[in-house]
Amino acid sequence: MKPILISMVAAAGLMVAGSVLAVDMPAEGQSKCAVCHAIDKKVVGPAWNEVAAKYKGDKDAASKIAANITKGGAFGWKLGIMPAKGMGASDAEIKSLSQFIAGLAAPAKAKAAAPAKGEAKKEKTK
Prior knowledge:
Largest sheet: none
Number of helices: 6
Structural class: mainly alpha
Number of strands: 0
CATH superfamily of the domain at 24-110: Cytochrome c-like domain
Strand content: under 5%
CATH class of the domain at 24-110: Mainly Alpha
């Protein structure tokens, strides 16, 4: 009985941890962009994580992404041509989504800058 209980608690913990780490596409992205984009994989267009990585460290990333969404194009991805304003997104939706996309690079940057909890930086020994 005890091993079953421990297994159930461990499984519940993993489910909660997985849902905390997952990022959901905003509602306006689901209705306007999800036909061609996903957060973590290529569909017709690039994954939003890839777009975020392309602009990582650029303080103007959100405005550049917004400008590209507004004008449409291929942007060097060689995956097809996005129509201007995607599937009819408003300027407010474009601004919100471009900030969301640019923000996808931030957690990875924060993780890389600091060692994991309980770990110290290891120095090479000779």
